[in-house]
Amino acid sequence: MTTSLRLDNVTRTFGETRAVDGVSLDIRQGQFVGIIGRSGAGKSTLLRLINRLIEPTEGSVAFGGTEITTLKGRALRNWRRDCAMIFQQFNLVDRLDVLTNVLIGRLADHGFLSAMAMRFTDEERTMALMALDRLDLVPQALQRAGTLSGGQQQRVAIAKALVQRPKIMLADEPIASLDPANATRVMDGLAAINRDEGITVLVNLHTLDTARAYCDRIVAMRAGRVMFDGSAAQLTDGVVRDIYGTEGLAEFNEAVTSTAARGRARVTA
């Protein structure tokens, strides 16, 4: 029996602004879902609502029959462990080595004193090294996280999320600041975890090409609302023009060109 993530009329307002406006989605276990839209469309707010980093103004989020929006205390901490969040800015501790940063993902399973002392078992260290191996980062295990490239740091963040043994991974613009080569490695890593572990992945993306290449389902947002929900094959340029207009399609294509240009500049620097 598969476990689904259900959003029912989820809304979040900030003053007069409806950042997320009546979103209802049913996401089956094991799907790789890309959420696209212009800046300010509500993509990041939506992920934070799912993870309960912010609270909905209206509506509900449920997973496997459990009402997420009512969880408190330990139950809420467990949900954030089961629903791992990967941020655009990595959220690593620069002064700590890579292995310790990954092990921090295990702290939700520790008691208060153990967590404060950063005590980890041999089993947890093995788990962390296996996660780093999956992302080709074992040689950097004892290197300070702050000395890594952006692409390497994002892969460390994915390894940190993986050792939480999550049921869902949420990735908020994980490749927005990366050159094309590193962006590909990050997306390949997420895709492999989705395929091999059956972990549901929701990823916010700013480019159509990436969404089409990796996602088996794409949700397009505008002004907080879902304007499209379908397969990558169904998201044609014509559909994008219908949803966002010619200007919107040009913006997405410009984002692809801009990312490629940043990558060329880093290579030649």
Automatic annotation (TrEMBL):
Keywords: ATP-binding, Cell membrane, Membrane, Nucleotide-binding, Translocase, Transport
Domain of life: Bacteria
GO cellular component terms, semicolon-separated: membrane
InterPro entries: AAA+_ATPase, ABC_transporter-like_ATP-bd, ABC_transporter-like_CS, ABC_transpr_PhnC, MetN_ABC_transporter-like, P-loop_NTPase
Name of one Pfam family that matches: ABC_tran
Domain annotation ABC transporter: ranges: 5-248
SUPFAM superfamilies given in the database record: P-loop containing nucleoside triphosphate hydrolases
Single GO MF descriptor: ATP hydrolysis activity
NCBIfam families: ABC_phnC
Listed name of the protein: Phosphonate ABC transporter ATP-binding protein
